[in-house]
Amino acid sequence: MKLLIFVHHPFDQWNAPAWFPERLRREFPEVNVVHLPDYKSVDTEIADAEIAVSWSVRPAQIIAAKRLRWIHSPAAAVNQLMFSELIQSEIVLTNAREVHGPVVAEHVIALIFALAKKIPGCVRLQEKHIWGQQILWDELPRVREVGGATLGVVGLGSIGRSLVKSAKALGMRVIAVREHPEKGSEGADAVFGPEQIGEVFQESDYIVLAAPVTDSTHAIANAERLALMRSDACLINVGRGPLVDESALAAALRARKIGGAALDVFPKEPLVADSPLWDLPNLLLTPHTAAFTEKLWDRHYALFSENLRRYLAGQPLLAVVDKQKGY
Q1: Which of 27, 66, 277, 302 has the fewest CB atoms within 10 Å, counting from its CB?
Q2: C-alpha of 318 from chain center
Q3: CA distances to 72, 105, 190, 233 from 181, in Å
Q4: What is the pLDDT of residues 70-125, one digit of tens each?
Q5: Residue 212 belongs to a domain
């Protein structure tokens, strides 16, 4: 049985460390683990692979991989893999949503506090050696308490579920949107279906986008919905860039129609140097760092090794993606 790992990215942390395949070889000696340093020989190596670990597989490679039965993506989002050759195949697709979810939720809490307490403004004033007490107080929206504020969570996957728990512990009121509200609230105070998303935009002090990218969620934060937000409300996106209409958000921020925003993800990354988003003072940008943790690959290993044990034993896998839904 051949396991092919081809995860290659310019950013070091997204690449599987050397110990990852080595540990797999020790713990699963019956598996032939092949770890590629780049994508140059994928076409050849995937032909006889039964398992693949990658977030980037091309349609032609799926067709050529006659023995492939399982693909594991070390990313949470799998929209880049939603092409017909894979969707219509019998190949099982799993992802790392449970690896990233709790860590991204922590990042969201940090962003909420940064926006509520005007931390970016404090940093800008520090750089100028300005004691900005009065400046920060006079600027609207004012510094606020997080406890008692209403958090709107769009998407109750791994990020959303973790976020609900943390927000409730801070004393926030939490309302949520999920595709199937009949599945439960996951601890939120109220849960709505997609057709009621406008109510969540209207009621929330902070709106967090944590939904997968599908046809129905593309530009879910558009001009119409941003116009529903209160003037002191903030939008946070840690899902995927296409969830937000960036031009509509920039316009709303320039006109001070909303209180602020924080973005960790963008339709095109890295964000281009001449993007107008860089210079909006009421926008906090983080460079897709919400999932950062020094324990990242330990968390990946725990999930993947458990799934590999299950696969070898013929048991159901964890974190299986519904290929028809795209998440």
Answers
A1: 66
A2: 18
A3: 28, 21, 9, 24
A4: 999 999 999 999 999 999 999 999 999 999 999 999 999 999 999 999 999 999 99
A5: yes
Please pick, among 22, 27, 145, 269, the residue that the annotation labels catalytic: 269
**pLDDT > 70: what percent of the chain?**
100
Mean pLDDT over the full length of the chain? 97
This prediction has a pTM of 0.95
Tally DSSP H helices, then E strands, for the chain. 12, 12
| Residue 302: band (very low, low, confident or very high) from pLDDT cuts 50, 70, 90 | very high
Q: Report if residue 319 sits inside a domain.
A: no
278 lies in the same domain as 307 = no
Spatial separation of the C-alpha atoms in residues 201 and 224, rounded to whole Å: 10
* Same domain, residue pair 29 and 117: no
**Considering 178, 225, 288, 299, which one is annotated as catalytic?**
288
**Residue 269 is among the residues annotated as catalytic for this protein:** yes
166 to 105, 205, 301, 318: CA distances (angstroms): 8, 16, 25, 24
Distance CA 179, CA 19 (A): 39
Which pLDDT does position 308 carry in this prediction? 98
Which residue among 72, 240, 299, 300 is the active-site one? 240
Comparing C-alpha atoms, which of 180, 200, 202 is closest to residue 189?
Answer: 200
Residue 36 token pair: 């590629």
Q: Which domain holds residue 88?
A: 2-98+293-312
CA 70 to chain centre: 22
Helices (H), ranges, the chain: 19-27, 42-45, 59-64, 84-87, 97-116, 119-127, 133-138, 158-169, 197-203, 223-226, 246-254, 296-312
The CATH number of the domain holding residue 271 is 3.40.50.720
